[in-house]
Amino acid sequence: MSDSEHPDLAAQEQMDEEPELDRGVVEAWAARMISNPDRAYKSAFYVATIFFLVTTLFPFYWLLMVALTPSNDLNQVGVLTPGGFNPGVFVDVFLEYGVPFQRFLFNSFLIAVVSTVLVLFVASLAGYVFGRLQFRGKNVMLLAVLVVSFFPPAAFFVPLNRLFNTNFDVLRPLMADGSLYNTPYAIIIPVSALYLPLSIFILMTFYSQIPDGLEDAARVEGTTRVGALFRVIAPLSAPGVATAGVLTFITVYNEYFFSSLMTSGAAEDWGPMLEGILAFRGQYEVLFNVMGAASIIAVLPVAILVIVAQDKIVSGLTQGGLKE
Amino acid sequence: MASVTLENVTKAYGNEIAVEDMNLEIRDGEFLTLVGPSGCGKSTTMETIAGLTQPTEGSVYIGGRDVTDLPPKDRGVAMVFQNIALFPHMDVYDNISFGLRLRKYDQDEIEERVEQAAEVVQLEGMMDRMPAEMSGGQRQRVAIARAIVREPDVFLMDEPLANLDAELRIHMRTQLQRLHRELDTTIIYVTHDQAQAMTMSDRIAVIDNGHLQQVDPPLTCYNEPDKLFVASFIGSPAMNFFEGEAVESGFDSEFIDISFDPAANDITPGQNLTLGVRPEDVYLARDREEANEPTRTIGATVDVLEPMGDEVFAYLLLDEDVEANVEGRGEGQLLLNLDPQTDIHEGEDIEVVFDQQNIHLFDTDRGQAITHKIA
């Protein structure tokens, strides 16, 4: 809505110009907002944006500040200024203190990658079935998937923990003691299952929009239904696949609940990245600056991934619902 | 190169029966067109041949091999789709070579075959374009190249020209006929456009409501339609129909009577008849010598004239009380085509005759043709 289009504008401008009204600063400001709502919308937008940026970015800035401060000067950290300048801490994270932080990072990264691939594969099959086929009981099953996604992860923890601590003879050739505890599988399996419903819903929406003719063409040309899914339907749904993939990767990479409880927390027992950050807590001192540096390093893979995939994610998140 | 046989094929979607008990034999190397109004089951028939849908009952044979339970990829068929269905994320070369790559042909052979196919449809030099960068006609040619490159036994074409503009459609029509002659492969073609069916096919199969009505060469369907439906569907503009009854003296209806000997035409008096006559078999009474065997004259008033350039369509009302039917030609209206030089005006009262040699009589109740020429 532009100024000239506002119907009451002329009348209200006249009101503004009445000098004899005895208004305070706030009252006058409010009156201007009422006479010109566009200003109100604009200022509301800036207020919301600044609020959002400050709440998300300021902690990150503070983290950087703490990380750069040498550990002896941590009490010198001001509101906006670091207590010193020690960029070497980003290297020390890996070399000093005896914490294999790179291994913790690798653990989380690998678990996230494997889970993402697994989730995308299974969700593709499910998304194809729910999005492109008609069958009895489809809505009931979809509802079941939705309901499962609402369960709190903690509800599954105790039975799963018992299960993964049980020794199975069949697993003995693969796992040293035949149990899944302290292996990446103990994290990948429950976490993939928990984050599967979201990906199913995203991919279902996308796959349902690919014209039948393309699938038919692929099948006549020589693929099976599954072949058509991975050669034609999924590539054409790239924004949806990217969105589902990135969301899954981020959630699993940041996951702490299962990752810490299904392992001993040691790096060689597939402890996650967060355990690595917390490992810089000694018995007598807490190395806040090192933890800060470790946190920033841990954020980098996700930040890079989001920047690389952001076009696809944005179109993926908005397209899904609109393109009916 | 293969024949295609449908044996008692029925396809039902829930309670909806799309195709019922269809028996159809398509000969090796034949160009057969499935034609019918939309929703008549012709596309379902084609999908059944392609293997994209499973028939509820019955069997499909291609080249004598029972393929009913085989997936589409193992049937030796290629298909061109109505919406063209090129893979939008692949360039022309990848689109055409898709099937060959899946079948693990070696690189040199793929390249050679793609080149040949592109030559047939005149697509040389466009190999690295994306489908989105091409015109409708070019995309259609890519789709055809994708189909021919695998040298399939049978080509299936599902309304391939429907999305093209009129001029291109006529051009592609002749291209397809030439293609059929060059490849000498069985082609099964689906369309609702009877002009395409008439011009390209060796035989046409007219389908209505899931039932096969007639399978014959185009001109046979035009001149000797087996069924009332075929008579009304084939031919543009459509045949004139009059519903009436057989009487001792011949045919009697509200608007016209034609006299003949019922016994000579295997008609029993009292039978419900529909009389059909094509617009070109109606003559002005003053030109009656042009008809092989004119009937007696029928009075009419000229309602509307439609000059088409090479001919004029004259819509006549057979009775003053008849209201022109807005939803197409109704009872009491008659269409004939005339030479553009004819001296005729709207509102004029005229007399016409039918050519008795070209009058079609149908049993109204069964929809079956009785005779195509009154004895």
Automatic annotation (TrEMBL), chain A:
<keyword id="KW-0813">Transport</keyword>
<dbReference type="Pfam" id="PF00528">
    <property type="entry name" value="BPD_transp_1"/>
</dbReference>
<feature type="transmembrane region" description="Helical">
    <location>
        <begin position="43"/>
        <end position="64"/>
    </location>
</feature>
<keyword id="KW-1003">Cell membrane</keyword>
<dbReference type="GO" id="GO:0055085">
    <property type="term" value="P:transmembrane transport"/>
</dbReference>
<feature type="domain" description="ABC transmembrane type-1">
    <location>
        <begin position="105"/>
        <end position="309"/>
    </location>
</feature>
<keyword id="KW-1133">Transmembrane helix</keyword>
<feature type="transmembrane region" description="Helical">
    <location>
        <begin position="228"/>
        <end position="253"/>
    </location>
</feature>
<feature type="region of interest" description="Disordered">
    <location>
        <begin position="1"/>
        <end position="21"/>
    </location>
</feature>
<keyword id="KW-0472">Membrane</keyword>
<keyword id="KW-0812">Transmembrane</keyword>
<protein>
    <submittedName>
        <fullName>ABC-type sugar transport system, permease component</fullName>
    </submittedName>
</protein>
<dbReference type="GO" id="GO:0005886">
    <property type="term" value="C:plasma membrane"/>
</dbReference>
<feature type="transmembrane region" description="Helical">
    <location>
        <begin position="142"/>
        <end position="164"/>
    </location>
</feature>
<keyword id="KW-0762">Sugar transport</keyword>
<feature type="transmembrane region" description="Helical">
    <location>
        <begin position="104"/>
        <end position="130"/>
    </location>
</feature>
<dbReference type="InterPro" id="IPR035906">
    <property type="entry name" value="MetI-like_sf"/>
</dbReference>
<dbReference type="InterPro" id="IPR000515">
    <property type="entry name" value="MetI-like"/>
</dbReference>
<comment type="similarity">
    <text>Belongs to the binding-protein-dependent transport system permease family.</text>
</comment>
<feature type="transmembrane region" description="Helical">
    <location>
        <begin position="286"/>
        <end position="309"/>
    </location>
</feature>
<feature type="transmembrane region" description="Helical">
    <location>
        <begin position="184"/>
        <end position="207"/>
    </location>
</feature>
Automatic annotation (TrEMBL), chain B:
<dbReference type="GO" id="GO:0140359">
    <property type="term" value="F:ABC-type transporter activity"/>
</dbReference>
<keyword id="KW-0067">ATP-binding</keyword>
<comment type="subunit">
    <text>The complex is composed of two ATP-binding proteins (XacJ and XacK), two transmembrane proteins (XacH and XacI) and a solute-binding protein (XacG).</text>
</comment>
<keyword id="KW-0547">Nucleotide-binding</keyword>
<dbReference type="InterPro" id="IPR027417">
    <property type="entry name" value="P-loop_NTPase"/>
</dbReference>
<protein>
    <recommendedName>
        <fullName>ABC-type D-xylose/L-arabinose transporter</fullName>
        <ecNumber>7.5.2.13</ecNumber>
    </recommendedName>
</protein>
<dbReference type="GO" id="GO:0005524">
    <property type="term" value="F:ATP binding"/>
</dbReference>
<dbReference type="InterPro" id="IPR017871">
    <property type="entry name" value="ABC_transporter-like_CS"/>
</dbReference>
<dbReference type="InterPro" id="IPR008995">
    <property type="entry name" value="Mo/tungstate-bd_C_term_dom"/>
</dbReference>
<comment type="similarity">
    <text>Belongs to the ABC transporter superfamily. Carbohydrate uptake transporter-1 (CUT1) (TC 3.A.1.1) family.</text>
</comment>
<dbReference type="Pfam" id="PF00005">
    <property type="entry name" value="ABC_tran"/>
</dbReference>
<dbReference type="InterPro" id="IPR012340">
    <property type="entry name" value="NA-bd_OB-fold"/>
</dbReference>
<feature type="domain" description="ABC transporter">
    <location>
        <begin position="4"/>
        <end position="234"/>
    </location>
</feature>
<dbReference type="GO" id="GO:0016887">
    <property type="term" value="F:ATP hydrolysis activity"/>
</dbReference>
<dbReference type="InterPro" id="IPR003593">
    <property type="entry name" value="AAA+_ATPase"/>
</dbReference>
<keyword id="KW-0762">Sugar transport</keyword>
<dbReference type="InterPro" id="IPR040582">
    <property type="entry name" value="OB_MalK-like"/>
</dbReference>
<dbReference type="InterPro" id="IPR047641">
    <property type="entry name" value="ABC_transpr_MalK/UgpC-like"/>
</dbReference>
<comment type="function">
    <text>Part of the ABC transporter complex XacGHIJK involved in the uptake of xylose and arabinose. Responsible for energy coupling to the transport system.</text>
</comment>
<dbReference type="GO" id="GO:0055052">
    <property type="term" value="C:ATP-binding cassette (ABC) transporter complex, substrate-binding subunit-containing"/>
</dbReference>
<dbReference type="InterPro" id="IPR003439">
    <property type="entry name" value="ABC_transporter-like_ATP-bd"/>
</dbReference>
<dbReference type="Pfam" id="PF17912">
    <property type="entry name" value="OB_MalK"/>
</dbReference>
